[in-house]
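User: Working on a comparison across species. This one is Class I SAM-dependent methyltransferase from Streptomyces longisporus. Can you predict its structure so I can line it up against the others?
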Amino acid sequence: MSRPRGGSRKFNTVPRPFGGAPVHPGFKDPSFRRSLALFRAFRREQDDPEACYSLLARDAADQVEAYGGAVDGRTVVDVGGGGGYFTEEFRRRGAKAYLFEPDVRELGEKPPGGAVVADGYLLPLRDGVADVTFSSNVLEHVADPQTFLSELARVTRPGGLIYVSFTNWLSPWGGHEWAPWHYFGAERARARYRRRTGKPAKHTLGENLFAVHIGATLRQVRARDDVTVVSARSRYWPFLAETVVKAPGIREVATWNLLLILRRCPP
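Assistant: Here's the predicted structure for Class I SAM-dependent methyltransferase from Streptomyces longisporus:
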C-alpha cells in the first residue's frame, strides 16, 4: 500500500486491489473546486448538516483510499465520529466499520447500528484489530493528544493506516463556533458569542477544546516509534497541501486543518 505521489492525485483513479466497485468519484485533491465545495458545505452546516457531513465523509473516505487503497472488506475503526456519517460512508464502500464515540449526545437520534459509547483513551478493542483507524477533528478536543494517538496506534494492525485530522488553535477556525475572535482571547471570544447569539458557547478552552499547534504535534509524532508519517498536509488547502505544512510559523495559520496519515510500525 504505497502513497500516491505528486499534486495531481485524483481519488477516482485509485485502484481496488481486491476487486469490487470502483472508488467513489470525488474531487481532485487538492483543487480549488474541491475546497470551494467543502467551504460552501461548511457554511450550510447549521441549516443542512446532513449535506455538509455527508460530503465531508465522502471526501475523507476518498482520502483514506487514496493513501491506503480500497476499504472494501477491511476493518475501519472510527474514533469520535459523532453522528456516524464517516462510519456510514465506509460501510457504503464495503468496509466493516465501527463507531466509538465518548459523548452519547453527539450520536444523535439515529446513530449507526453497533455504535459504542467509549472513550478514545481506552477503546474496548484488542491490539491490532483495525486495518484503518480514523479520527476526524477530535485531537483538539482531548487533553492528552499523545495518549489518544497511542490508543489509535495500539488498535491498528502493523502496516495499517491511521488517519488523524484536527483544527489547530491558530487556524482561522481554531476557536470553533467563536472563531475567528479567539485570536483576541478565548474568554473574550466566548463572551462575544453569547452576546451575539444569546446562548453559551459549546466549547470552553481547557475543558473540551485545547490549543493544539502544528509544529509541536509534528515533532511529537515524528519522535514516536510506533508510527511512521506517510503524509502531513493541509486537509482542505486547494494547492501545495504538503508544502504549506513545511513552513514554520505560516503553517500555524495557513494550514487550516492538519491531516496526518500515519502507518503503524511492527511492534
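For your comparison, note: The longest strand covers residues 156-166.

User: Helpful, thanks.
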